[in-house]
């Protein structure tokens, strides 16, 4: 009876230690997976921001080319003013794309 009680106590202690170790290992695995997920999430956000930036700049490039061609209809000062406005709009669109990309990466 005493030997059996000792065996049961030892088995309970061993089981408790195994459960405790399993909890520690699981916590470590979860923390590692969480960090990996955060890294992947950050990579995804960066890729999304970069893609959106590239699309916005391409759109700005296209809009600028069209605007410059439309300015060719004008002559003299009207053409210069039109080109200046097209250039300013282009610069603003690129700056907006850059600001949006920076905000999305944070």
Structure description:
It contains two helices and no strands. With 106 residues, it is mainly alpha-helical. Helix 1 runs antiparallel to helix 2. The mean pLDDT is 91.
Give a brief description.
This protein is mainly alpha-helical and 106 residues long. It has two helices and no strands.
Secondary-structure topology with pairs:
Layout: H1 2-71, H2 76-105
Helix pairs in contact: 1-2
* Percentage of β-strand residues: under 5%
Distance between the termini: 67 Å
pLDDT average, as an integer? 91
Rg estimate, integer Å: 32 Å
H/E series, N to C? HH
Regarding quaternary structure, how should these chains be classified? single chain
The dominant shape is rod-shaped
- Low-pLDDT sequence parts: none
For the largest beta-sheet, the strand count, sense and barrel status come to:
none
* Tally of alpha and pi helices: 2
Class computed from helices, strands and strand pairing? mainly alpha
* Helicity level: over 70%
What's the total number of strands?
A: 0
Q: Any key phrases for this structure?
A:
106 residues, mainly alpha
